[in-house]
Amino acid sequence: MEGYTATSDVNLDHPYFARTGPRTMLIDDVEAIWAPIAERDDWGIFARALAEIAQMRDAYGVAS
Fold this sequence. Notes:
Structural class: mainly alpha
Radius of gyration: 15 Å
Order of helices and strands: HH
Mean pLDDT: 93
Helix content: 40-55%
Number of helices: 2
Strand content: under 5%
Shape: elongated
Number of strands: 0
Low-confidence stretches: none
Largest sheet: none
Oligomer: single chain
């Protein structure tokens, strides 16, 4: 990784990069999001996932 540098759009001081791990959407993540929706019509985890994705987008300098 020493031969690589971040693009100028990435804000390495952003709080997103202080997380212990990245926001992922692996199948287990999607199933964990879907389960409370299907069982109790609870969209809270989905809303948090969207907020984390927005934070990641901001950290990487991606326009919405």
